[in-house]
Amino acid sequence: MKPIVEFQKINKFYGSAQACKDITFTIQDQTIHALVGENGAGKSTLMKIFAGLERADSGQIFLKGSAYKPESAKDAFKYRIGFVQQHFLLADNRNVIDHLILNWPYKSLLRPASTNELLKKVELFSAKFNWHINLKTKIRDLSVGEQQRIEIIKALLTDPEIIIFDEPTAVLAPGEILDFLKFLKDLKAEGKTVILISHKLNEIKNVADAVTVLRHGQSILTRDVSEMSVADMAESMIGQKLGSLVTNANIKKENRELFKIGDIGLIVEKNEILGVAGIEGHGQSQLIEKVLATVQKNKISYGDIAEDRIKFNLFPGLNLVEHMTLRHPKHLTKHGFIQQAKAVATTRDLVKAWDVRPHDHLIAVDKLSGGNQQKFVVGRELFHDPDFILAAHPTRGVDLGAQQMIHSALVARKDAGKSVMLVSSDLDEILNLSDVFIILNKNQIYGPFFKKQLSEIEIGQFMTDSHPEQKNFRLGSVGTGTLT
Amino acid sequence: MKRENLAPWFGFLFGLFLACSLALFFKESPVHVLKIVTTSFLNSKYDFGLTLFYTTCLIFAGLSFAIPMKAGLFHIGSEGQLTISATIAAIIGVSFNANTFTGLAAIFIITILTGMLSALIIALLKFYRKAHEVVVAIMLNFVFAALSTWVTVNHFQNTASQNPETGLILDAYQIFKNDPIKNYFEQSPVSSFFVLAIIFCILLRWLESKTLFFQVIKSYGANPAANKRFGFSELKILTSVMLMAGFFSAFIGLTEVLGNSFQYKIGFSPSYGFLGIAVALLARQNFIGLIGSSFLIALLHKGASDLDLETQFLTRDFSRVLQALIIFSVAASYYVFTYRKRKESN
């Protein structure tokens, strides 16, 4: 084996942030070389530099022993480097052949490429990898997997020696992933060198020959994959031993329990934001149902920011005052009669406090914009200072200002000794706000985990059944409702 | 006034126009027909009283439809409920021998309970079996009609008559014969039940604006899923609106048996249950508006019944055609008027 690419002390700054810090490693010819690291570790930046899309501030790259300093993507073409990016660069309303022609190398504008030759080549690829591609199909009518194939063919048309794949399997279904991994091996067998960026360590273990781990912009190590277990890779990625994870049994704290859902063993504590991570449709609704049932049974006052505000939180045609009386009859009615003046005053204050626009308490709720509806819902649900707050996707469809407002309101409740359960498909929201979190996957609950106990990659593994210690962290199940 | 609130009135006028135009086919002048239909209630005090009697029944029928409608239920079971209630009222009136107070109390209580329980079936089947209220109501209408007929003809048939009807209720229970309202309108069918109907409308309107209960019903009609999530009981809502619907259906039976014919006559109702739908839709389920729309439909009904005498070729059956066209147009108008809005929201 001989080295084909060498990175030497590559540095790259974006403003004051350093994306690449003295990255140094070597890639061998005709291998599949994996690059792993957390989000922001510098993988994509490094590859963009390599493909001529970004320029390094310092450091050198050697390609087959000679210095290589790409100025643009054109240089990368010239040096036969193909790049399949994470986000596809395809135009929805154009068909496949349009995209391929654009990538077909031409001598000059006056001597365009021969389409026949192009078609022959595409046919060749299709036959080799057993892909069926209709060249007349518009991009928008293709599945994500098919779109990726177009990107791959685009890259292969230039007959590259080195092909970079950035998170290729993130968009693929499980069956497609297997095909894709086989395809990578085929490429290697053809004599190509593959650079693979992926979060899925199992796939890397399966397909790659060598792996380089990046952390915080630095290259931590480069090794043969055969020498490393998946756990080793994960450890070096996040910089701490996986074994240091505290198991559920070891969690011991003073008793701050607000309530407990017996059959799943989930404890909701005071002074805490409990995050619920997971891909949508993996049991969130069932969990919410259970939680609400428990809360109602235990007569705990609660706020309910529902997962679907139109379906569960609002009554079209009814005005804001009516919504308030319906939600807070204890405060706003007496012996079944509505205390109109009080209801109006309360609603007016709430509309002002949460800046629900327009400032009109008699407006029908369906006349408000989505963001204002959500502000109203959050305000309404927090109005009675409940002991428990269910906040499911509380900031969905809300602008940044309102997002902050909602987030700080939730944190303020927590600081005031209340419990918040934050269900969200936005992992950043969960990681930023929650003190403890659980992960839902196929109606199974994993956790609870402390903040920063897991890296995003590991959370992703829990969501996709690929964490090596998955079984040990199973807390319970929320029933067997259908997955959507 | 909102555009949508005007919609049923356009439908009403359009239906009336259609019906009168139809008269052309029968070689009658549409203007003549229109004149009879709209003015015959003014012919005499008796005629006016008769119109108010229809109004009374239609108000009750309209309430019986409008209340469930607020909860999103399309209640067409009033016809069956009023039939069985009237039968029960007559049976007790004929067979339960007691003093006036006890007897009347028994008639009121048992008749109302009958109406409420017969409506409750719809709510329970809807809640527990997810049966659609319209289908159940249609079936029950047939069941109650058959039951009433069987009981009347086989067990309580008026031996002095060849018509299928019960005997007259005991004299002690016929107190509404000397009702001041009835006397004023020259012994026409109208009675104090008319005043009661109006009181009910006003009371309901007041309760609707003041109580949480009606707001809960309205919210259930607007979004049942959210209503449930708010912790309100679907069963309670369904049963209470249907019990109220049955309560008002029963009052139609009482109005007829205690206030008009003093017996149960098979087929006494000219489809009050269905006319009630038109009444409620015209008023857009507004309890006060119901009084006006009931009077309007009542005068048309009264007028159309007179077509027999006043025209050469039209019979009183034409009143059904008229009503059908009006109900159809009113129902359709709502969709026509909200078409653009619905299209936009889609």
- Any idea what the CATH superfamily of the largest domain in chain A is called? P-loop containing nucleotide triphosphate hydrolases
Low-confidence stretches of chain A: 242-252
Strand content of chain A: 15-25%
Poorly predicted spans of chain B: none
* Gap from first CA to last CA of chain A: 48 Å
Q: How many individual β-strands of chain A? A: 21
Which percent bin holds the helix content of chain A?
Answer: 25-40%
Description:
The complex is a heterodimer of chains A (484) and B (346). Chain A has 484 residues and is of the alpha/beta class. Chain A folds into two domains: 3-243, 3-Layer(aba) Sandwich (Rossmann fold); 248-477, Rossmann fold. Helices cover 35% and strands 24% of the residues of chain A. Chain A contains 17 helices and 21 strands. Chain A has helices spanning 43-50, 73-78, 96-103, 115-129, 144-157, 174-189, 201-207, 230-238, 284-297, 309-312, 320-327, 329-332, 340-353, 370-382, 400-415, 427-433, 456-463; strands at 3-14, 17-28, 32-36, 58-63, 66-67, 81-84, 162-166, 193-197, 210-215, 218-224, 257-261, 266-269, 272-278, 302-305, 333-334, 337-338, 388-392, 419-423, 436-441, 444-450, 474-477. In chain A, the strands form five sheets. Chain A has a seven-stranded mixed β-sheet, with helices on both faces. In chain A, β15 and β16 form a beta hairpin. With 346 residues, chain B is mostly helical. Chain B has one domain (3-345): Orthogonal Bundle (ABC transporter involved in vitamin B12 uptake, BtuC), CATH 1.10.3470. In chain B, 73% of the residues lie in helices and 0% in strands. Chain B has 16 helices and no strands. Chain B has helices at 3-22, 30-39, 45-70, 78-95, 100-129, 133-155, 180-184, 193-210, 212-222, 224-229, 234-259, 272-282, 289-305, 307-310, 318-337, 339-345. In chain B, α4 packs across α12 (272-282) and α5 (100-129) runs antiparallel to α11 (234-259). The longest helix of chain B has 30 residues, at 100-129. Chain B is globular and about 60 Å long. The model of chain B has no long low-confidence stretch (mean pLDDT 91).
